[in-house]
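Thread: "does anyone have the structure for this chain?"

Original post by V.I.:
We have the sequence but no experimental structure in hand. Need at least a predicted one for the grant figures.
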Amino acid sequence: MSDHFQPPMKKGGNSNPLQHLWEMVDQFFDERPLKKMMETLDEYFQKTLSHTYIPIDVRETKDEYTIIAHLPNVKRNQIQLEFIDNHLQLIIQNNEMIESIDEQSHFYQRRRMHQHIARVIPLPYAVSEKEVKASWKNGKLIIRLPQKRKYIDIE
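Reply from O.Q.:
Generated one for you, tokens below.
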């Protein structure tokens, strides 16, 4: 008797006993509604995970402390800036409806996209809300604070 178990083979030319199972799986994932759902899920995860980080640059001079948030694909009305204690919270909200119609295949698609990204930016020192200035220009949000640190000149 052999030590290795071998499943019974189908008589004929097919040497792979799982071939029929693989064909059924391929057919299942190749069906139009399921394939479209998988493409939609792929698109959702790609869009969701690719834009979750808001890059910022910080510059400090003797006169001011500047925070620059790089937001190239964002519109001004999607940005919200909140002052909380010694932190700024930058929020980007995007709500849009996307509709597409393919009259040849009688396919109608309607999707809603809700996107909410937030980043908390700690401030280096205490400032009042009135001292914080923000402006929007060419895809960049520029936040300015007056410089409150005292620098000592070294001879």
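V.I.: this helps a lot. The first strand starts at residue 56 and ends at 60.
O.Q.: and The longest helix spans residues 32-50.
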